[in-house]
Write a structure and sequence with these properties.
Low-confidence stretches: 1-19
Structural class: alpha+beta
Mean pLDDT: 75
Helix content: 25-40%
Strand content: 15-25%
Order of helices and strands: HHEHEHEEH
Amino acid sequence: MHHSIIFFFSNPSQPPYEMHPTFRLLLSSTSKPLPPHTLTITLFTRPTCPLCTTAKHVLAQTWEKRHFEYREVNIMDPGNALGGAEYEFDVPVIHIQPTKSVSEKTSGVVEGMRWRKLMHRFGVEEVLRGMREVEGE
């Protein structure tokens, strides 16, 4: 069976990854086999959040310099227990933590594990610095 993916663009000359940074991150992580990533970055976001869109672009640019596992959590999703109450008025927020400490059911950090949290406005260099700190470099 053959599947097609259809994209709709407001500007046909703009590549999809510039319009949809989440798609770019997810496509980058599945387009070719890579060794397991040592770090996971979880983005806590909500729909119609302009700072969240900027944060996604920053993470897409960070991915170009250093790969990581990517998770995105919509805090407004009623079925989602991750970060909703904690970050309701603070998005975007990212957690940088070792991949082995990430659980699908919780946004909490495993006791004793290094981790970093960045909030609101952050750049590529700040994310990379957080990644180095988590790995103890």
